Amino acid sequence: MIKRDLKKTILNMKNLEQGFTLIEVLITLIIIVILISVISVHLISLANSADTAACKTNQYTITTAQSLFFVDKLKQGNGFFAESFDLLLPYIEDGKMPHCPRNGEYRLLPKGEVTCTLNDHKK
Predict the structure, then answer these.
(1) Of 15, 36, 52, 90, which sits 20 to 30 A from 70 (CA to CA)?
(2) What pTM did the predictor assign?
(3) Does 33 fall in a domain?
(4) What SS3 state is found at 102?
């Protein structure tokens, strides 16, 4: 009798282990796709914000180099701002001109200011 009850219990357990239905699998996949799409949109937004911040930091670096250039020229009796980036290279760390991470171009403005050609990168 115990053997028969044991066999019955084992058969009942096998019937419970049939797996997932197609609907359950599809719903799970849909949820995963929705989560991935939400996360990817957020990551793209973060990357754009980081690029904008890096560009603004680069502009401040170039503006600082402009100020240092002006002070050096003022000490020589003729204070003026640089009209080309080549003149600023000695005032920038590593002697390398920073570049916009989204391929904008930096422009030197009067009074030592610097701007990027991309509208959302204006400081």
Answers:
(1) 52
(2) 0.70
(3) no
(4) coil
